[in-house]
UniProtKB/TrEMBL annotation:
Residues 5-77 form the Transposase-associated domain. It comes from Tanacetum coccineum. The lineage of its organism: Eukaryota, Viridiplantae, Streptophyta, Embryophyta, Tracheophyta. This is CACTA transposable element. InterPro entries: Transpos_assoc (IPR029480), Transposase_21 (IPR004242). PANTHER family: OS08G0208400 PROTEIN.
Length: 446
């Protein structure tokens, strides 16, 4: 016997709901216990409480039917085992997550006259695509569709590298241990038998760097007063401020080891990627339509006074809802988890306030931009380490902006960005103090 359950998903004011409910109660009358009670499947009782049969209709009418109650085993339906799954030998493998990512990166807008991806179309800032870059991207596509071993149709070689690296980070494995594991897997699953495991962590990082997940290593003065970057300063061996050597041992033959290294994760390609991904492109304009309509209530920074004051002062920026509003946060922590160890690491993180409130403060939406090494807090000299980030922010603020593809509309536009405010734990002497609430005045000159 087929039981009609369609009425449970209808509105409580529809006639078909009451017709189905009345029949359900009538069918339950022979199933009551000796006291005339039966389990109630309403959203309030959820089969935990028992009610009399005459109150069953009132409960479900008032609270509705529990949608998680699929098989009515307490109300006359037999609990039969599910039928065996039908195996479809013609099933095609689903598109992997990494292939979807590459499709987003290589998206070509309809108004692209060249009919081929430019370097700007794959997340870079330049429009001159070299043959080497094109070959790298083709290799990524091949890896994203390459079987990990013959007959494997559920994970590709690129998917394996992404997932395995995730386990490394989650388990806090060192590079040496990770390489030993890969070496062990290479011996157990040799390439001679068709297995295509990555040879080392270096090879995995090199692959991911082609996707745009790399970072810049910038040598810094050990006294926090200078960055050895740019065409003029990249080959300087002594700090021009304090005359301290850049190297741990300047007499070492071959490749020298720097005393301090700053890691910078470029923000321009990452902001461009937010508009190149079908998962986030539409959400990036939420702030333009998601303002709170209740007076005096704030549910997102767009409802705050700083946001509104900025829109009044810079109407040309506010006229394009795809322009990006950012928040900046920084704080120090001990990466070794040992209070007796005198070392601190200072991450600088950007928050994208274009996104709705349930996404903009989600951990996966945070953008790590700088990792400032210890052994102590940079103090007021944090300004020195922020220079790579500030340079990119100035490029993003200057007109006309950075050419970006919006997959939501299929068109290109010029993206600009600004820092609305900072949430910081900077020392009081830092020139960044006072940004909070009015940060755009520092980064957005007229």
């Amino acid at each position: 016997m087929v039981i009609d359950k369609s009425w449970t998903s209808l509105g409580k004011h529809e006639k078909a709901f009451y017709t189905g409910l009345k029949k359900f109660v009538d069918d339950c009358k022979p199933l009551v216990d000796s006291a005339g009670n039966i389990r109630c499947p309403c959203k309030s009782c959820r089969l935990v409480l028992w009610v009399s049969i005459k109150h069953l209709l009132d409960h479900i009418s008032k609270y509705g039917f529990d949608p998680s109650y699929k098989t009515w085993i307490h109300h006359g339906e037999l609990d039969l085992p599910p039928p065996p799954p039908v195996i479809d030998n013609t099933r095609q493998p689903q598109m992997s997550d990494m292939t979807t990512c590459l499709n987003d990166l290589s998206y070509i807008p309809l108004n692209n006259e060249q009919n081929e991806p430019t370097q700007g179309d794959i997340g870079e800032t330049s429009n001159n695509l070299t043959q080497a870059k094109r070959n790298e991207f083709e290799e990524l596509y091949a890896s994203a569709n390459e079987e990990l071993y013959p007959g494997c149709d559920y994970v590709t070689r690129l998917d394996f590298m992404a997932k395995f690296t995730y386990f490394k980070v989650k388990g806090k494995l060192t590079d040496s241990i990770f390489n030993e594991m890969l070496e062990f897997f290479q011996n157990v699953f040799p390439t001679a038998k068709g297995y295509k495991l990555p040879p080392s962590y270096y090879a995995i990082k090199k692959t991911f760097k082609m996707i745009g997940l790399g970072y810049e290593s910038i040598h810094a003065c050990v006294n926090d007063c200078f960055l050895f970057r740019g065409d003029v300063n990249k080959d300087v061996h002594f700090c021009p401020v304090c005359n301290t050597s850049r190297w741990k041992d300047s007499n070492t033959p071959g490749k020298k080891v720097p005393k301090k290294v700053l890691r910078y994760f470029p923000i321009i390609p990452r902001l461009q990627r937010l508009y190149k991904s079908s998962h986030t492109a539409k959400e990036m304009t939420w702030h333009a339509t998601g303002k709170c309509t209740e007076p005096g209530k704030m549910q997102h920074p767009v409802d705050g006074r700083a946001w509104k004051d900025f829109d009044t002062k810079y109407p040309d920026f506010a006229a394009e809802p795809r322009n990006v509003r950012l928040g900046l946060a920084a704080d120090g922590f001990n990466p070794f988890g040992n209070l007796s160890q005198s070392y601190s690491m200072w991450p600088v993180i950007l928050t994208t306030y274009n996104l709705p409130p349930w996404l903009c403060m989600k951990e996966s939406s945070f953008m790590l931009t700088l990792l400032i090494p210890g052994p102590k807090s940079p103090g007021k000299d944090i300004d020195v380490y922020l220079r790579p980030l500030i340079d990119d922010l100035k490029d993003l603020w200057a007109k006309p902006g950075v050419e970006t593809i919006d997959v939501a509309t299929g068109l290109k536009f010029n993206m600009r960005a600004m820092v609305l405010w900072t949430i910081n734990d900077f020392p009081a002497r830092s020139s960044l103090s006072g940004w909070s609430g009015q940060g755009y005045k520092k980064l957005c000159p007229t």
